[in-house]
Amino acid sequence: MSDVNPIIDHARALTRRAFFGQSALGVGAAALGSLFTSESSPQDPGGNGLPGLPHHAPKAKRVIYLLQNGAPSHVDLFDWKPKLREMHGIQIPDEIVGGRRFSTMTGGQKARPVLSEITKFARHGESGATVSDFLPKTAEIADKLCFIKSMHTTQVNHAPAITYFLTGDERPGRPSMGSWLSYGLGRETDNLPTFVAMTSLDKEESCGQIFYDYYWGSGFLPSVYQGVKFRGAGDPVLYLTDPPGIGRKTRRGMLDDLAALNRERAREVGDPEIDTRIAQYEMAYRMQTSVPELTDFSDEPKHVLEMYGPDVMRKGSFAYNCLVARRLAERGTRFIQLMHAGWDQHRNLNTQLKIQCTDTDAPSAALVKDLEQRGLLDDTIVIWGGEFGRTPFVQGKLGASNQGRDHHPYVFTIWMAGGGIKPGITYGESDEFGFNVGNDPVHVHDFQATLLHLLGIDHERLTYRFQGRRYRLTDVHGNVVKPILA
Description:
Radius of gyration: 25 Å
Shape: globular
Structural class: alpha/beta
CATH architecture of the largest domain: 3-Layer(aba) Sandwich
Strand content: 15-25%
Helix content: 25-40%
Number of helices: 14
Number of domains: 2
């Protein structure tokens, strides 16, 4: 009996269809890789950014986005409306509602009595900004902030609305803002990721929202540009410590050999994701040193820790993440995305709103002050806001212990600070009910265009070719909101 040769046997058994299918896959991957390299992606994955960027002199180098998942109630926190108190308990006029769409929780609710603010408002600073007494630390820095009170969106549910803010489209699959910036501007540091995401929950875990990976995903961009998710427990990233018996020299040798194999494979098939793999292995190696130092707060002065509040040493808390964000910013990370869930007060407005404010107020204000004290605020943009606001009318029974407010995309408030933003101003306003935009509307794409402009990017020119067309963060929309620029 002749010797068995599985390779020859496999070749003999290979059908014509299978042969061309496999060949097409290899040729197709190589062709796709060459297209990516020639048309869209920089030669150094995740490195120095695209040629010709920035398009103009930037005001800012980095962004810290404090995204408050679940939607803070603008009419209870920032947008004081005496009309709500005047009409408390009275059905909101039909001409104001105008057939607007709400979530399924109030979509069929016939009675929509006006609910006045459950907080107390006062004017603060030379700017006279109205801020709720639930946010005393934010009120202290009112003159450093730009309040946009005419934000509006088209999405009425959480995940699509968050996705819209982060990627410019309500459907998953597009690159997030941090990925666009990593792709366009490149990295400032070799020792930490360009784009980092961190998440936190209210202690009561009252809303149960999910943090989807695509919130910090790279979409159709090469995956080297996706955000690195820092965990809220244990090591921020896995495998920071080498296994027993493996030293740094051994690890370095293993990575060098692995990189050589990957480069050989990349030459064979032209897959740009292999370059991503090489770059990510190298970043992981460097992070074994940089991340433990990053999260060691022993060099932080006591007064700084106290400024962030009592939760600052609790891993995974919003306060802890805010301090890590400042430390990332001063070490060169370009986009830092903090997401804090718990603002979804459908049935617990009377209790949970206060808790959310207590957990987030001091850390948010401390971050702005800390950046300013270190000379970083001038070139760092800080953003605070949710994916939409909440209804001026009540959800549930007025006056009940479980009353709340529904989702409200038609007008809401965010604030921005630093990085070329004009401080101590309020831009835009809602109508007397806080229901619709009164003047100077700011759409999600306007917000994104303005952010890119401050970073030196013309939002119409930062594009990526995918499936036969050029995509951009702002799709085919967006105008820079020039009155808020310093």
